């Protein structure tokens, strides 16, 4: 006979599962059926989940009370959905963790009867829970048992009654307590109970005796040290009370541990199972009973299933799990259900948030109404949660995490639920820590590979701009959603925004504009990441101003761009932003800024990896700076060794080609010069200093400046070179051998030119006549920088119209490929083909011949000086 009925419909959204649990719990408690509430809630949760989550339809839940029990029906609007059928071998529904069929498995395990019914539009799963057979009015009862099955106790059962005040001091001690432990009331009253209690605590929990005395109700075992010094194991039941004046105290009932049946609360029995125990498999393990089998092999999967099971176990609306950092100072959110996970994931909270028990994550805590203590649980601010219970996860006494379950209704949880949740947390703590260490090892291996690759990339360039780009590209999107690099020129300079990168290229310009308008982060040389709220505050202020301006303009006058760009930038920088100093050689040279989009946080492992990267990047950036400075200085000095603008020589074509070997070199050991001496006279020189590098360049500078000075003082060619030879020898150990071709040029009125040349150890100048013949235009003489006394002489050469004088350094004649060398004869052959060409064309053809002679680029400095007297028709 049906005596009561209740029904409700739930929409296909995730929150409906919690609402259905609340509906069933409230209905059955209202009917006074508290004994079967837990089983009914668990079964309803699974069946409604199948309907609203997996089937994606509304769920109709009906509770029917009859004379013998309660029937709960869950119907969905997806009758085609497959229902796992029983196999021929018995009740087999597959794994309890598969998405479909788990509710039916629980029905078979917990319900007295169950079934599935189909209609044209509905599929209905129902189960029935029978009322327990016990006398009316009792809180708990067990079946009648034969005497042989009853628990054993002494003929005189003693129950010690001990009352402990709010300071933990014993205030009452009855006769049974004196008989059991040997202390008289006079000896024991006023002493702390903790002086007598010989903990270990109850196996499987993390609660000590001092903490147990603060709980409203506690039950467990520990030891009491008697007057004879022996420890007597006892089973205790604690109840926290207060007197008429409001003073709190705890009443402790204690019996010998072997007589615990006198006080122990009856445990909720397992569902009847008539099958052989050998067929139950490993599901009897406490861990797998809570988590399910098989357990997920990845950390995120294990944590997510843990919070879902904890929420269902305590019939909560939300649950979350936090893992402790290595130093146990902060907790990081790693999994949640019923909360905005995108906003909460990887958020960090301190382990010690305040004084007192509830201010530490190391102890269980129950908040009956969060509205009375706003901010007590930061993760639940503005989530609508009113009551919460949290327990620590510990491994070998070390805090590894925290597990919490919350509900929207106040006063939903008490210390009894805290004990249940703590028991579950103790079951999973070791598995969670093992999975966390496995994940951490994978992350560290990946981090090492990342740092090795980053180091190779950074070491592969000495260009400052490229180094800045590499720094940003290595962090986005691997470590952050956006990155900005600030550089500091010197200690007195302000940081300068040098590079900005966002994973979405369309956001780069808006982000750069935002960062340009705000003050850069403060320069702090200490290592480690620190938070920076500047971008977030500026972006949201700009977005608010833009939105208000758009509203005030009205729809017709609203700007075409609207507030979208500002809002997009605000969203891009709305998450956590950190700044890492770039410190190299004990000096702050910049700052690396990393950011996340709205409501996202950095993982601790990623921050540590970013710190390692910043140290390497700082050194690479400083090396690039030093190299740039050295290169700038070197190029400046080299440019000072090159002659100024080449003068125009009337009546003579002059072309010079100069190539310095080596990367970044503008001047080497070879040099040239062409300069006016006095009216109608010009000096020219081409030389080669022995060796390369700075030492050779130094002699180059000495020779070029000495030639100009001596020639303008009126000295002839031999005198100029003799004095230069003495100056080179005066350099001592720094001196270098020098081959030099020096001459003076006098253009003639009739169209020709007269030259006086001195060839000191240099490749001889070649004269190309109009008829194509080539001949040496001077004789070889000793090179400079070897002997003190030189007797040099000059030779006169006359260039007729159409003639060419070609002067080169040995980088041209000694061009090699294998055993072949261009040589003087090869140069003569090239010059023979240049009849009728201008001076520029002659120099270009010689250069092309040198470059084509071998596949490899030239390895020696090279200078080519071509002078030609044009023919009358050319003029």
Automatic annotation (TrEMBL):
Keywords: Hydrolase. InterPro entries: Bact_Sigma-Reg (IPR052016), GAF (IPR003018), GAF-like_dom_sf (IPR029016), HATPase_C_sf (IPR036890), HATPase_dom (IPR003594), PAS (IPR000014), PAS-like_dom_sf (IPR035965), PAS_fold (IPR013767). Pfam families: GAF, GAF_3, HATPase_c_2, PAS, SpoIIE. SUPFAM superfamilies: GAF domain-like, PP2C-like, PYP-like sensor domain (PAS domain). Residues 161-191 form the PAS domain. Coiled coil: none annotated. It comes from the Bacteria. GO terms for biological process: regulation of DNA-templated transcription. PROSITE patterns: PAS. One of its GO terms (molecular function) is phosphatase activity. PANTHER family: STAGE II SPORULATION PROTEIN E (PTHR43156:SF2), STAGE II SPORULATION PROTEIN E-RELATED (PTHR43156). This is GAF domain-containing protein. The lineage of its organism: Bacteria, Bacillati, Actinomycetota, Actinomycetes, Kitasatosporales.
């Amino acid at each position: 006979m049906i005596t009561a009925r209740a029904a409700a419909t739930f929409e296909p959204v995730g929150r409906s599962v919690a609402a259905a649990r609340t509906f069933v719990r409230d209905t059955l408690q209202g009917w006074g059926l508290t004994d079967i509430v837990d089983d009914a809630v668990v079964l309803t949760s699974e069946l409604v989940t199948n309907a609203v989550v997996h089937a994606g339809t509304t769920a109709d839940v009906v509770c029917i009370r009859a004379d013998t029990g309660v029937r709960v029906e869950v119907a969905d609007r997806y009758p085609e959905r497959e229902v796992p059928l029983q196999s021929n071998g018995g009740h087999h529904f597959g794994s309890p963790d598969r998405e479909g069929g788990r509710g039916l498995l629980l029905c078979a395990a917990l319900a007295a009867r169950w079934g599935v019914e189909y209609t044209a539009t509905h599929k209905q799963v129902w189960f029935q829970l029978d009322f327990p057979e016990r006398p009316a009015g009792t809180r708990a009862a067990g079946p009648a048992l034969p005497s042989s099955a009853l628990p054993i106790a002494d003929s005189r059962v003693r129950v010690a009654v001990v009352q402990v005040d709010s300071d933990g001091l014993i205030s009452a001690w009855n006769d049974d307590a004196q008989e059991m432990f040997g202390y008289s009331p006079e000896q024991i009253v006023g002493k702390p109970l903790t002086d007598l209690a010989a903990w270990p605590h109850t196996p499987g929990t993390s609660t000590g005796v001092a903490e147990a005395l603060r709980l409203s109700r506690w039950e467990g075992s520990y030891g009491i040290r008697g007057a004879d010094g022996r420890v007597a194991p006892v089973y205790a039941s604690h109840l926290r009370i207060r007197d008429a004046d409001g003073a709190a105290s705890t009443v402790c009932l204690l019996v010998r541990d072997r007589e615990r049946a006198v006080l122990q609360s009856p445990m909720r029995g397992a569902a009847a199972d008539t099958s052989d125990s050998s067929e139950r498999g490993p599901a009897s393990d406490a861990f797998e009973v809570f988590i399910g089998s098989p357990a997920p092999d990845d950390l995120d999967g294990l944590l997510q299933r843990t919070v879902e099971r904890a929420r269902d176990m305590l019939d909560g609306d939300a649950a979350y799990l936090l893992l402790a950092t290595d130093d146990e100072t902060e907790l990081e959110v790693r999994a949640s259900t019923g909360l905005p996970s995108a906003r909460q994931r990887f958020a960090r909270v301190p382990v010690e948030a305040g004084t007192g028990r509830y201010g530490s994550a190391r102890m269980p805590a129950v908040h009956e109404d969060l509205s009375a203590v706003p901010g007590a649980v930061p993760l639940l601010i503005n989530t609508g949660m009113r009551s919460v219970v949290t327990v620590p996860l510990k491994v070998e006494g070390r805090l590894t995490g925290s597990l919490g379950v919350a509900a929207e209704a106040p006063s939903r949880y008490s210390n009894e639920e805290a004990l249940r949740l703590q028991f579950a947390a103790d079951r999973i703590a070791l598995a969670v820590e093992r999975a966390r260490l496995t994940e951490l090892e994978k992350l560290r291996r990946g981090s090492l590979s990342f740092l090795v690759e980053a180091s190779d990339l950074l070491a592969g360039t000495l260009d400052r701009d490229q180094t800045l780009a590499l720094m940003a590209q290595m962090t986005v999107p691997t470590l952050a959603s956006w990155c900005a690099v600030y550089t500091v020129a010197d200690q007195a300079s302000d940081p300068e925004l040098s590079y900005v990168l966002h994973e979405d290229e369309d956001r780069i310009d808006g982000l750069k504009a935002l960062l340009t308008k705000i003050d850069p982060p403060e320069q702090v040389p200490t290592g480690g990441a620190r938070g920076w709220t500047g971008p977030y505050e500026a972006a949201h202020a700009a977005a608010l101003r833009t939105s208000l301006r758009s509203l005030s303009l009205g729809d017709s006058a609203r700007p075409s761009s609207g507030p979208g760009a500002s809002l997009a930038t605000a969203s891009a920088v709305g998450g956590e932003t950190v700044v890492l100093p770039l410190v190299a050689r004990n000096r702050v040279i910049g700052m690396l800024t990393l950011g996340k989009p709205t409501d996202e946080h950095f993982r601790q492992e990623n921050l540590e990896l970013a710190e390692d990267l910043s140290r390497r990047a700082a050194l690479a950036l400083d090396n690039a700076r030093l190299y740039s400075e050295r290169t700038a200085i070197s190029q400046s000095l080299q440019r000072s060794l090159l002659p100024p603008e080449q003068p125009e020589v009337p009546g003579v074509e002059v072309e010079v080609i100069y190539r310095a070997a080596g990367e970044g070199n503008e001047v080497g050991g070879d040099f040239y010069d062409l300069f006016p001496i006095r009216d109608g006279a010009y000096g020219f020189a081409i030389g080669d200093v022995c060796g390369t590098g700075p030492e050779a360049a130094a002699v180059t500078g000495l020779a070029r400046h000495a030639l100009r000075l001596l020639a303008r003082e009126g000295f002839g060619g031999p005198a100029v070179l003799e004095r230069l030879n003495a100056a080179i020898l005066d350099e001592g150990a720094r001196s270098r051998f020098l081959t030099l071709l020096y001459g003076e040029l006098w253009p003639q009125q009739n169209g020709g030119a007269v030259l006086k040349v001195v060839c000191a150890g240099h490749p001889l100048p070649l004269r190309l006549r109009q008829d194509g013949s080539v001949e040496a235009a001077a004789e070889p003489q000793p090179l400079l920088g070897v002997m003190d006394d030189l007797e040099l002489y000059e030779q006169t050469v006359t260039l007729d119209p159409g003639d060419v004088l070609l002067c080169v350094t040995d980088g041209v004649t000694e061009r090699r490929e294998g055993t072949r060398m261009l040589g003087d004869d090869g140069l003569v052959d090239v010059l023979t083909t240049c009849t009728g060409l201008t001076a520029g064309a002659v120099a270009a053809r010689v250069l092309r011949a040198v470059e084509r002679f071998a596949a490899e680029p030239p390895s020696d400095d090279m200078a080519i000086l071509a002078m030609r007297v044009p023919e009358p028709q050319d003029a």
